[in-house]
Fold:
Amino acid sequence: MSDSIWQKEITAEDILKVFGLLRRGFISLAKYIIDPIRRFISKLGYKLAIYVFLVPSLGFITLFYLVPFILTFLIGMTAMDFTFKWEWVGLANYIRILNDSFAPKIMGNTLFYVFTTLTLFNVGMALVVSLITNHIPDHIGSAVRGIWLLPRITPSTVYALLWLWAARGEENALINWFLTVTGLSMVIPTRTWILDDPWVIVILVNGFVGTSFGMIVFTAALKSIPEDYYRAAKVDGASTWDIIRYVELPMIKWPLLFVTAYQTLSLLTSFEYILILTDGGPGLYTTEVWSLYSYHKAFRSYGGTVEIGYGAALATILVIIGVIMSLIYWRVFKFKEMMVEPKIEV
Amino acid sequence: MRRKGQVTVQALVFLIIGLLVGAAIGYFAAPKGDPTLLDQLNEKDQLIEQLRNELNEIKDQLEQLKQGSTITLKVWAIGPDPPSEYRYKNFELAADILNMMLKDLGANVTVEIEGQFFARPVEWEQYRQNFYQAFAAGEAPDVYLTGHEDIGYLAANDFIIPLDDYIEEYWDLIYYDFFPTLWKSVEYAGQKWGVPQDTEARPLYFRKDVLRQLGWSEEEINALPEKIKNGEFTLEDLLQVAKEAVDAGLVERGLVHRVKEGYDYLQFYLAYGGQLYNPQTGKMVFNTTAWGLTLDWFYRAVWEYGVISPNQFSGDWDADFHGPFTEGRALFLSGGTWHKGEWINKGLLTEEEFIEVVGYALHPAAKPGGKPVTLSHPLVYTITTQARDRGLDKLAFIMITLVSLPTFNSIHAVQSAHLAIARSQISETKYSEDWFLADVAYMLEYTTFIPNHPDWGKYSRVVFDALRAVETGDMTPQEALDFMVNELQSQIPDSVEFVE
Structure:
């Protein structure tokens, strides 16, 4: 029987019938399913749309930020090692941090590193470079900014190794050679920089990379200050310094605060250059920062055992500090106002 | 499929047993003109007859093997010094010979070695990390070479299998000949968990040319190793001589030691009468007095005598360890026998230069008349539990047995300047030609091993932190001692016993 159906010749009438059926089907679908949904959505209106649009980013945040943090927090309450077993120890790791002989020194290192790199380079130098390049002919300014971007685009290992060579103790190593030929060695004696002044190298290396981020943001903000403001200032007899002080700095206040907040958090967790340059040395935890300490505890042990649980607890502390810092910045710098309306014309 | 594969592995295992038996027959039957070997041969006639019968049985079984296949064995080994590459390469060599034999016998089965030899810049820490991650992913090697001190942790956490039955099975063929002390290094909880791969001694090297410049006569220089052996040259003398050389401007550094965490410096604790392990209690030992004296010695070496750099532990292997000594800028070097191999291989010293300017001795005793020390750190082949799960544990052990034969092991020992693991290896052609290895062999009488304890890594880290802190001046010896006691008591209170 079934054979006879399939063997039947299909006519144009049959095709039309099928189309008719499909059409009625779609109409019913729209009437009974899609229309009610549309009406429901329009009823919920604007608010729902916001949430719908937020779903992808919330999903990513959950997946890549919230879940790893929860995992880190939970691992921090275990004695996990290379067996990767969840052996619960409650708050033992946190109590150990409180009693850790090196924790105060490492926390001090971290604060020193973040504060110094931030003020001298990531915000300070970035601001200076942006302001100077904004006041010199644009083609030269762009070239200077391009050069400042080089550390950022150089692979981090290559960049750090170049510094290691430059900072060696020989007289012909780059830094020592520079000090000698410029005569600066009379004031700053040549030395083996990594051993004698490790912090100088650590901060320079991180700072030269960090400067470029702020420089780009500040330059973009400076470029968007309307030309009229400059003209008006000049008509009033303002000097370059006056323009910087009374026009540019107030106009880029918000990008300045944003870069400060963002780079603080970034520096708190960054350790890759320190790892390559000094590995936390020389000596006893001289340049060890909290994130590097967490890494060392979790992944490094000559004797064959590691303390992933303790490392995770240390990392959790860092996350908590980061959140607290964010909240402080949020309130002190009034980020809420910044989010409401743009303060400069774009 | 699994059943067929298992049959193939079993058949291969039997075949290899046969080959080993054959190799043993050949070894004993070959005319060597050595009366002791002929004596051994006569004693083993009965065994050989028994093994011949087994071989015939295996051949019969092989005839039933219809399908050809390749069995892959995954092996991981580390130097990290590059000359130790035969820890891995010997498996390839052994597999090649095995496959040739298999082919000649008409067996349609081959053994393939897959794996890796890890050398610098990969260091022990990364190597271990790679292993544990591979294990977690179910991709662990079948044969894993590691330091013997890992055995406690690996065994306690089910990473490796005990090998007593296998070792027993092949005892009369090869393992009876191993130096008995080496078996102690693979024991944990009353079982053997590995096969010793090599060992070494840690000599105190000294520059003869610098001593000559200090006014030492040739006789005095040549007598130094013997004086140290007899306890007539102590750690205090070492400080004194090193200081003289530094003060005279002959060298920049009196003594260089390793630049990273390790075990060499434990020898100073041992020299002061310290003990690391108590086999009766199964606990690690912390001798407060010995550690106090050790920390004090290092403190004085850096801050009073100025013979060790305060940043020695932050140095670079080439710039702060090999370089200063091989270039004559340091008088003493606390190193290992393998460093001689490394210097020659790297071209830092020629064999002739080494003979001319370098001397070597045990690490001196702490007090006159005391016992000098050295430390050995045998590396061992282990078999993972994942190899057992794959049904490859027996094949893995047979391959370990093959590479443990004196011929194979001597290739490694000579190239990397490690010491023999078996007595008959001393007379092996290649090995016996190496005068240095023969010269340092006596040091094994003074050696100690580090403990096979699951918490050894934590003990070791605390020691390193304390010594580093003393050398950098961050802690006084007393502060460092308090720190060590506090850390060990809070981290691993049940694993350490404290003695005065």
Notes: The two ends of chain A are 75 Å apart (CA to CA). The first helix of chain A runs from residue 2 to 7. Residues 300 and 306 of chain A are 6 Å apart (CA to CA). Residues 9-71 of chain A form one domain.
